[in-house]
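1st attempt posting a full record on here, be nice pls
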Amino acid sequence: MFLTISTTGNPERPATDLGFLLHKHPERAQTFSTSHGTAHVLYPEASAERCTAALLLEVDPVALVRRGKGKGRGGAPDSALAQYVNDRPYAASSLLAVALAKVFKSALHGDCRAMPERAAAPLPLRVEVPALPARGGADLVRALFGPLGWETVEAEPVPLDGKFPEWGDSRYVRLVLEGELRLADALNHLYVLLPVLDDAKHYWVAPDEVDKLLRAGDGWLAGHPERKLITARYLSRRWGLAREATERLELVRLAEAEGLDVDDVDNAVDESIDTEERPVPLAEQRRDAILAALAAAEASRVLDLGCGQGQLVQALLKDTRFTEIVGVDVSVRALTVAARRLRLDRMGERQAARVKLTQGSLAYTDKRLTGYDAAVLSEVIEHLDLPRLPALEYAVFGSARPCTVLVTTPNVEYNVRWESLPAGHVRHGDHRFEWTREEFGSWAASVAERYGYDVGFTPVGPDDPEVGPPTQMAVFTRATETDTTAVAATGTPESGTAATGSAAKGVGTEGSLTGTTTGTTTVTTTEKEEQA
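the predicted structure (as tokens):
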């Protein structure tokens, strides 16, 4: 894949000044290494009247397969054999945009110490891209580049096969742009809009992509009529990032309309006198409560059982007191998302040594999970059918036996406070049950007694005087003096098989629990023996 940038000049202002602006000498061919191949910069023509710089990117097919597969990771999204047969080596895409940013970094920023006045002035430019993927067709190409000051925007569809015109046109166009613009502006247009038109980024879009987009779009993106489409596609439709970018661009647009700085517009709230606090999401409150309980237990090696997409693992990694963190989930897809969230492929060696993601079912014993300081079951048990709950109990409390176990689950009594939740409905469609405080307390006390643990309870979220907190958390602490007798009473299923036995003490077939209310006090084995 390649593109060319041409300009014209005269003996007083020679066209070869383009070499100074691009920081690449016209008399030399230069080579640069990129993550997916080799970029070459050469000048097919260089005279005072006309100068053309060409950027040629040779894509390494093996690197494509190793680094990414499928849509957004280096493969073409339209082919079942995307990792082997795709258009990445030939058509301009985010691969070329990344090479553009690396090779012409100074020019993108408008920096040129040798000719600062030339870099700040418009030049007669002609840009050609022979094969540009255009999801949206030639009309979208013109709609994107037309408002940016280009006098000519040619988007000629490329036929599927010139020998068979009846087959029609491909999704590629030959792009030609002509106009008088600053070189930095032209390069930034290409850097943003090439991957937007291709609509299939080859790398994972992280939050820092918002800053890249706003930096490259400075001066033109905020007022662009297709701003919404550009933002969504550039950020691979990650709507949280797109919303953040849109809000920041709106501030830029307002500032430009008023002739003010962005900081002067975004000063409606004086933080020094504002006393209104934004509500903290319940998920964040739950993570904070778990982190506090783990710190109080002085745990350093922690299991996140049912880790999902890795939000808790990410929070644990930020605290250096946790030296080993293992995330376990039955869903391979969830573990893949968690790996992306944690950026495991970019993580430093020391940090990577602290974390491990592994696939496993909590209904089966697993010797890999033994010997840890603590285990967390955050919003997990309510996703299990009640008959399978005893298997989880044995796998965690009877087999793995960490010193501390934290279990959080919704408090069904609090559901009446959710205005958007219809009466009689659980909070999530996949919840098999949701317990009252009494039911959860009875279950936790029964598990603690059978497996030799003490248990205490902590409210998570606002503790309503009538219905309690939205989330309830049980903190199990292993009572070493009763370990042997407690485990012996449960029976010992064979390693690697599902734990068997009757339902947990007090658990009925409809999800109801019997027994006394434990409230928010700690129930220990010794106390229960005294009561007996």
